[in-house]
Write a structure and sequence with these properties.
The structure is a homotetramer.
Chain A (H helix, E strand, L loop, with lengths): L8 E3 L8 H7 L9 H13 L1 H4 L5 E5 L2 H12 L5 E5 L3 H12 L3 E5 L9 H10 L5 E7 L1 E2 L4 E2 L2 H11 L4 E5 L18 E5 L10 E6 L1 H9 L9 H8 L10 H17 L1 H22 L2 E2 L11 E5 L6 H12 L1 E5 L8 E5 L6 H18 L7 H10 L1 H10 L2
Parallel strand pairs in A: 1-13, 3-4, 3-5, 5-8, 8-9
Antiparallel strand pairs in A: 2-10, 6-7, 9-10, 11-12, 12-14, 13-14
Amino acid sequence: MSYKSGRHFLQIPGPTNVPDRVLHAMSYPTIDHRGPDFKALGAEVLEGIRPVFGTTNPVIIFPSSGTGAWEAALVNTLSPGDRVLMFETGHFATLWRNMAQRLGFDPELVDSDWRHGVDPAAIEKRLVADTGHQIKAVAVVHNETSTGVTSRIAQIREAIDRANHPALLLVDTISSLGSIRYEHDAWGVDVTVAGSQKGLMLPPGLGFNAVSDKALAAARDAAQPRSYWDWEEMMGPNESGFFPYTPATNLLYGLREAINMLNEEGLDNVFARHDRHAEATRRAVRAWGFDIVCENPEEYSSALTAVLVPDDVDPDALRRLILEDFDMSLGAGLSKLAGRAFRIGHLGDFNDLTLAGTLSGVEMGLQRAGVAYQPGGVQAALDYLAAPEAARAQSRAAR
Amino acid sequence: MSYKSGRHFLQIPGPTNVPDRVLHAMSYPTIDHRGPDFKALGAEVLEGIRPVFGTTNPVIIFPSSGTGAWEAALVNTLSPGDRVLMFETGHFATLWRNMAQRLGFDPELVDSDWRHGVDPAAIEKRLVADTGHQIKAVAVVHNETSTGVTSRIAQIREAIDRANHPALLLVDTISSLGSIRYEHDAWGVDVTVAGSQKGLMLPPGLGFNAVSDKALAAARDAAQPRSYWDWEEMMGPNESGFFPYTPATNLLYGLREAINMLNEEGLDNVFARHDRHAEATRRAVRAWGFDIVCENPEEYSSALTAVLVPDDVDPDALRRLILEDFDMSLGAGLSKLAGRAFRIGHLGDFNDLTLAGTLSGVEMGLQRAGVAYQPGGVQAALDYLAAPEAARAQSRAAR
Amino acid sequence: MSYKSGRHFLQIPGPTNVPDRVLHAMSYPTIDHRGPDFKALGAEVLEGIRPVFGTTNPVIIFPSSGTGAWEAALVNTLSPGDRVLMFETGHFATLWRNMAQRLGFDPELVDSDWRHGVDPAAIEKRLVADTGHQIKAVAVVHNETSTGVTSRIAQIREAIDRANHPALLLVDTISSLGSIRYEHDAWGVDVTVAGSQKGLMLPPGLGFNAVSDKALAAARDAAQPRSYWDWEEMMGPNESGFFPYTPATNLLYGLREAINMLNEEGLDNVFARHDRHAEATRRAVRAWGFDIVCENPEEYSSALTAVLVPDDVDPDALRRLILEDFDMSLGAGLSKLAGRAFRIGHLGDFNDLTLAGTLSGVEMGLQRAGVAYQPGGVQAALDYLAAPEAARAQSRAAR
Amino acid sequence: MSYKSGRHFLQIPGPTNVPDRVLHAMSYPTIDHRGPDFKALGAEVLEGIRPVFGTTNPVIIFPSSGTGAWEAALVNTLSPGDRVLMFETGHFATLWRNMAQRLGFDPELVDSDWRHGVDPAAIEKRLVADTGHQIKAVAVVHNETSTGVTSRIAQIREAIDRANHPALLLVDTISSLGSIRYEHDAWGVDVTVAGSQKGLMLPPGLGFNAVSDKALAAARDAAQPRSYWDWEEMMGPNESGFFPYTPATNLLYGLREAINMLNEEGLDNVFARHDRHAEATRRAVRAWGFDIVCENPEEYSSALTAVLVPDDVDPDALRRLILEDFDMSLGAGLSKLAGRAFRIGHLGDFNDLTLAGTLSGVEMGLQRAGVAYQPGGVQAALDYLAAPEAARAQSRAAR
């Protein structure tokens, strides 16, 4: 091991910086997953995670990545060949589509320019046209991690309702849960997909499905073969705090601590903090003279900001220089944005000074890389963060 | 939290006591799973884990429980409706069969008395009868965690070969890998299934598939829909140390440390240690006047010992008393053995004095519970452990 | 590092096995020792430690070993050349005497056979003879770590009172505090000396002085030059939770956790547990046919047992064999007991099964070393520990 | 506990941010301080620490704070009433003087304006005048933590030599060791005093004395009573890796790791990094329009910067606001500088982005507090840090 002084800045849009409290909680000895201590732990996290999703319904927790939770959402609710309406908001929406295809479903992908979220009107129009109700589910990504665009789930729900269509609504919140306001019940979502390694501030290794009653009913009829991901298998033992197969015990220790931390700060404060850091970041980006991938201010992501670079700039070389010279990891432009953008994560266990360090790393990287940019991005962010208005905005949002 | 002085004795047959070195390794900050530091980590564990399976072929690592690795073994190699020959060695073999059924395969279960391992002759006979090669795979459990019986995989391989049958050989080593000698390549196994939480001394959360070339070829034809578990998706990125979706980074830190520890002790020494502790445990059990579930000495498990209790003894009440009075977790009798047996785990990060404590807890529990037993079990174990012969046996085995 | 499977048994009479909760508490980032978070920590430990000493008076906490707390007790209360009455209960009492001499005081050592505690009658007699009140302090060791003999402090207090002598009473509780009942106030002790690494279950690095009002008054007149150890310098800042120089912050985190743990178990239960483990150990030692160093049953130590070995046995070779073969550390015979005894620590974070493992390690070591002994020591201990009477005794003592 | 998102910025001039590697190293179980594993640990740290002091002579390690190491330096080398020449560079030099007085020595304090280091010419002059060699030692602070002024030790040595005076040279490096170039042997220092909690990146709890042969010779004649701090007592057992009384084992684990880290980075690189961060900080301070306490550029401290605030500014209110709003601890102005200055620590485990976050916290605090200042301090620091010249300067210095 070669020592680099100071802490690494992990500013990819997840996995995020895991706080010490979570790491320490995870380092307790593993216990008997059939014993009374585990029963208490299981009951606590299965109950405690619900408000984070904005639901009073069950949340299923898998030992898996978020990708596994995608698969679980599909195989529990659909039958082979079922049509799923999806929306190409970016790289991850596309990967989810590919998964649906490989699993033998029939995804229909509405394409997009990767600079906007899901268009509720387009969904409404497509569902209205689906008079035979061939479409069994609408599957969308809440916060598209590859673009920094947050789709408006409540309005999508309204669009489905206006179309009077019975399709299930499946939503990926992998990079928004615990960072951006989300309401599984109030927004009428049927399956919410999440992972542990972003707003929940845990290492990767847990996948989540929050499920509506309608989703549970659909699961009873869904003919896709399934075993590991089967909700019903989970929900029986879950009622008494247990799991049907060995759970990822130590990550559950971490989850218990993370839920405590979110509650200590207060979810409203957590969301307001992310909003404020995102706005500061956008001010820095604009001051540098760069475009933000997301074009619709109503859809700005509070978890990450994807930055478009001028044509003559290699964003991957820039990221490499920043990693080597300033020990900070940034996210690459993916797929359609490869070579055209980089991404700044500002989610999870984060504060004003760490954001200032992050933006300083970008600005110094731009200078060292010889990129043409306007200095002053960090200054613009500091001006916003220091201003009483921003503080007030945060406290207002938190009410 | 209410303090109980001293350490808990986690003597279920897994998850096992996680050593400090592993817990500490796991508590380092999560890193960018697309960056150079991860690449080095990934390459190291993907390479380093192979000798533990006795293979030079790839080993796939999933963020999942061992149950997920069961599913991966089936869905990568089989097509819907494929017949799989399974053998009812105990509770876990039965669960694997149930999974095969739920996933839409056609498992054929050879039944058994739960006191013996897989009968190679029975396999041979069945395969010889399968002239049309309807059977696509033979799936067996190496060490049946519910009974403490270790099946003879090398002889099963020979039986398949004698039958001249093309079926794949799938083997579950969830509770044997890293504890009981196992040779994926030398024994001609096609898929070896394992998990992190037993002999590998990690918390639960990683599933493994070691794969033969024949298994990889079968995967190319296997028509079962799959995505999360797909080997090919994994093996591409794995070649450069990466994973197709977010891996359980912190468990991989732990895996690196666990591999180091196994190598420091030497796998031969690890196996000899488990053999010795198992023999000491059996001597204690016999001294108490109880039967061991496993009837065939060639099939004694070195990872756990399942103990039959007299008809008038409630083993679960005994386990409860031992948990409450002596802070030790033991394994329950499962399914057919429920109410008739309990199980002592003696695998993983374990030594002579911890075994002595474990057996002392059982013997004191027997006395407190008012069970009719012969005292002297601990003494018998100590006599064996202290004798120079046992030490010599261990060092001989280790050569 | 070379991996030895399982946990090391640290059965010296301190430092003791540090529990995970303490180690984890200690691994939080160091904070500003002048800031509000520290103030809360300081106030909590300075207040919370008092009941552990059985005092409502201040307890001073030094960044030091217990040896430093010895020095602090002397230099705060005495003037150069002052006479101190000491009692040669064993190695550590002798070392404290040597320290007093080196610091320029005038210690008078009453000698002893190292198999008994301080004789209250001898103290009374000496003090009565000291009509000129030359003796300024009586300094005794509560639990002599080198012999496993616990002196009767309450009776020493009565002896001093009967002699109507103004000498201060200084007591070393380094290896008894938090393990053996102790009452600073009720027993009229003036200065109680302690360290962190035994019954408090912490790593070494903190020294303690509990101080009576009489001791504080003496300190105002004491002319010995002092700075680092000066109580008054400490007590000012301590009133608001702070320290005059940088405290050992992370050990204080551990201390807060240790105090919580002692309170969760309840001090009475803690003492009863130590008594019960000590009795079990003595039964094992007697069953093996060996003598216990302590000759007076009223003075048996509940923290450790020193065992005399037959003349032809080399206890250090035995300890070495046990360390190498069974990964357990035992205490050596010191000074007058060198080559004649070894010591078993049974204090701190400890339970029945760990004690069983400890005694098993000794018994197996005796066998491997070829020592002439009677088998059955472990059995005798288990019989005692398992018997309902012992459990009842413990619960009775705990009331 | 109430969760504050993100990491606390501990930017007092020590204790410093303790890196994870050190915290993890410290969280291993305590071991037998008389056993073979400890012997190896002790030998390794006692040897490995020497180059950090720039010495091949012994370094004594105490379980104590740095204040204890001050006391050790005095009591080992001096006799009651001995005169010590000291220099009032700031608060800590004054405290050391007070200690000398309380211990019964005769300190003579040369006063100063707290904005300059020790004046070598003044020392020379005073020593020349001391024809009777009454002065037994010159005791100076290398880096005065209260002012951010670094005295020129090599030139002080030359001044003593020019005066041809036999006084010992005692140097406090508590806030410089491991941060600012220091050469115990080459600079002819007799006793170097240090602590664990600054450049060594450990929690507080270890004190150090590096000792010249001349100091050891002086110790043989020094008549001050001493026991805990006695070098000779230490050096005997140290020769084989042991300590005369229980050492602070877990802090020694941390020390081993910290030495490894310093060696991995390379001491020259460590010093160059501190120099560069200090220069960036000064550029920020000047851009804000504030004065630096240190007036002589040759004496700028690379470990901390003390900033003078305008008369109408309350620096403690500013620090409180920064702590509450931005979760950063800064150092207060002490004693003569109370209410006139605050201090920024930029030492230990630190990097460019953490420095950027630190300076951002100060600048945002100035704005929120309504202090009259010139914006642009952070920008000035970033310009310097990003410039290739600074990088080159660092690499040049590191050669």
